[in-house]
Specification:
Elements (H helix, E strand, L loop, with lengths): L8 H8 L1 H11 L19 H30 L4 H47 L1 H14 L4 H12 L2 H11 L11 H25 L2 H27 L3 H31 L1
């Protein structure tokens, strides 16, 4: 590895924790599973960028839908008047949307800062001792099964271009994609919007009517939305859309039913 004599004290401390940070990055990227190569047909390929955006949208809508549906049905089950249900629904929508946005911003911001720190250190090592980094890269490819001479040749060619060298080391040594760190503001904004859209669905009927008709209309509208969100996940998972839709409907419906029954029990206990 390269000498770190000209590193700042902060960089020195980060370098000492490099192993821990690399493990953290692997966990953030979800690299805890193994896939065994096997023959057979595969589903249609999905574009990575579109699938990532779709995934965020689907789960943002689902979070808002299930959480606010449960909240609204819990309040409605107590028998309180329609204005209270609407206030609770609006409060749940805003609180959940801001909470999701803040959490997503912090999560992506911290992850991005960790990534940038590791890439900064890797850039310093490449600039300070390129030969040591070339040997390290060759060793990585050799451990992956390439013949030693081919691993050396590949590492040598990749190290000729400093930008390519940094990108390769970030990917192969640290498991990072230098160009895919993500935007905290974009993540926060999309989370806020998609959560709000989902949370508005069960609230809508109570803005137009009240009582049992509103509960029934909210249940039907939310059920259709839950099924649609579940079916949409099949685009990402490759599972049958009907099964995915019914599974999401069952989970969201169960959550709403439980909170509604709890509300009913609370109403009974207050009356007694």
């Amino acid at each position: 590895m390269a000498s770190t004599n000209d590193l700042s004290p902060e960089d020195e401390r980060t370098k000492e924790r490099l192993g821990l940070l690399s493990q953290m990055v692997s966990r953030l990227r979800g690299r805890t599973w193994r896939i065994v190569p096997h023959p057979g047909p595969i589903a249609e390929q999905r574009a990575a960028g579109r699938s990532g955006a779709l995934r965020a949208a689907i789960f943002g809508v689902n979070d808002g839908l299930v959480s606010n549906l449960s909240l609204i049905f819990g309040v409605a089950g107590t028998g309180l008047n329609n204005d209270v249900v609407i206030v609770a629904g609006v409060a749940g929508l805003l609180a959940g949307a801001f909470s999701m946005a803040a959490g997503e911003y912090i999560s992506v911001r911290v992850q991005r800062e960790v990534y940038e720190r590791l890439i900064h250190l890797e850039a310093h090592e490449i600039g300070s001792d390129p030969e040591a980094e070339r040997q390290e890269l060759a060793e990585i490819y050799a451990r992956r099964g390439l013949p030693r001479d081919l691993a050396d040749q590949l590492a040598t060619e990749l190290m000729r271009d400093p930008e390519m060298a940094l990108e390769t080391h970030a990917r192969e040594e640290l498991g990072l994609d230098k160009g895919g760190l993500g935007s905290p503001l974009a993540a926060a904004g999309s989370s806020f919007i998609t959560f709000s859209l989902g949370a508005f669905v069960p609230l809508l009927p109570f803005l137009m009517t009240s009582g049992n008709p509103a509960v029934l209309a909210s249940a039907i509208l939310s059920g259709l939305a839950l099924f649609g969100v579940g079916a949409a996940t099949s685009y990402l998972t490759g599972k049958p859309w009907l099964l995915s839709g019914l599974r999401m409907l069952a989970i969201g419906g169960a959550a709403a039913a439980v909170t509604y029954l709890v509300g009913k029990l609370l109403d009974v206990s207050v009356l007694n």
